[in-house]
Amino acid sequence: MDETKGRLPSYQTKACPRCGAELYADMNVCYGCLYDFTRDAPRPAVSELPLGAPEYEGDETLDLGAGTSPGVTEEVGMLLRTPSVNLWVGVSARGVLVGRGSKNDIVLNSRAVSRSHLRLVPTPDGMEASDLGATNPARYQGRDLRGTVVVPYGDTIDVCGCALTMTGPRAALAPATLQCR
Where does the FHA domain lie (predicted)? Predict the structure, then answer.
């Protein structure tokens, strides 16, 4: 008698570094955010980074004890990354609206993006991200972002393949508030 009968075969998996989705190990593209495993992740040009953003290359190790982290700057905003664009956008205290419609502060021209997709408002702890009833919700740490969640400065959310990395003040990451996950 076959001992594997009735059991599902096990497959090796890996996590997408952009959106955190669980994928089969042999997949070369994440179908959640279209991350291409066969290419190096695009790095923004120094001119596209906010003033004071740390510059780092390739395999350098970032010293977290030095108080800097990718996306942690004195200016509040976000680094918007798509397959064709790397752009830093400042976010005022009133926040920004993200979506496909022309009335948004940040317009993402993709049919997958809802007309009114997401609202981002800076807080001392990070960027408050509120879902505006999007058909394809934004994803944070591999899960659908429904309702409102505070995304810490330096963390990234995915809006239909567009990566939004929150940037903000160093004070938000004082040693007393650092949390390991």
Answer: 96-145
Closest to 50 measured CA to CA, from 128, 154, 161 = 154
User: How many whole angstroms from its chain centre is CA 115?
Assistant: 20
* Calpha distance 116→61 (Å, rounded): 38
User: What does the pLDDT average to over 18-36?
Assistant: 76
Rounded CA separation 33/161 (Å):
4
Half-sphere exposure of 52 (CA within 13 A, CB side): 14
Contacts of 2 (CB under 8 A, 6+ apart): none
- Strands (DSSP E) along the chain, which ranges? 13-15, 22-24, 77-81, 86-90, 96-99, 106-107, 118-123, 126-131, 139-140, 143-144, 148-151, 156-159, 162-167
